[in-house]
Amino acid sequence: MERLCCRIGSNATGNGVELGRNITPRHLTVHGNFYFGKGLGAQFGHITPSQAPASATVPQQARIHGFGAWAQAGYDFTPHWSLWVFYGLDQPNNSKFSTETGANLLRQLNHDGDFLVRYRAGRYAIGLEYFRAVTRWSTGITNADQYAISVLHTI
Fold first, then answer.
1. What pLDDT score does 55 carry?
2. Which residues fall within 8 angstroms of residue 37, CB to CB, at 6 or more apart?
3. 39: domain range?
4. How many domains would you assign to the chain?
5. Do the Cβ atoms of 14 and 49 come closer than 8 Å?
6. Nearest to 60 by CA among 90, 18, 102
7. Is the dihedral of CA 110, 116, 121, 122 positive or negative?
């Protein structure tokens, strides 16, 4: 268990389990991670300040239970060209939070997906990328799409 500090002078306790794996057989790379727990916002999941109502107390924010996961796979077709896909989700348990506190979470789930085509030449790489996020708020569902060009230089 770790001590989480949510506001000055207020402490809350959170606990969780995180499991991950990375494999790289030949031209394929697959890695991912899964976590679940309670009060994880200060670490990596269920981002409590943006999920809990503004009037929520620190003990209420520490009661957010849930799970999340992400996975990414990439394949090098040639020494220069590769294709990558990513999917991740963060799902706090709103019904449990509501039962325990009488409040609803503002952000109730989030799913992200990404697709990248990358060209690599030595220490440089350039990629064309598409990203999509879908978030369910207490007021409804929103989504966002983004296209990007990325540049990478490794040292």
1. 53
2. 14, 15, 16, 17, 45, 65, 66, 67
3. 2-153
4. 1
5. no
6. 102
7. positive
Which amino acid, residue 79? Answer: P
User: In this predicted structure, what is the pLDDT of residue 14?
Assistant: 78
Return all residues near 77 (Cβ < 8 A) that are at least 6 apart.
27, 83
What span, in angstroms and rounded, lies between the C-alpha atoms of 150 and 152? 7
Return the ∠ at Cα 49 (arms to 32 and 56), rounded to 5°. 130
Q: CA torsion 26→68→88→31, rounded to 10°?
A: -10
Is 20:10 a contact under the CB 8 Å cutoff? Answer: no
Please state, in angstroms and as integers, the Cα–Cα distance from residue 88 to each residue in 2, 81, 143, 149, 155, following that order.
24, 24, 14, 21, 28
Query: Tell me, what's the pLDDT at 50?
Result: 45
Least Cα distance to 73 among 112, 116, 35, 36 occurs for: 116
CA dihedral 19, 84, 40, 15 (to 10 degrees): 0
Weakly modelled stretches of the chain, pLDDT under 50: 1-9, 48-52
**Residue 97 token pair:** 């939070």
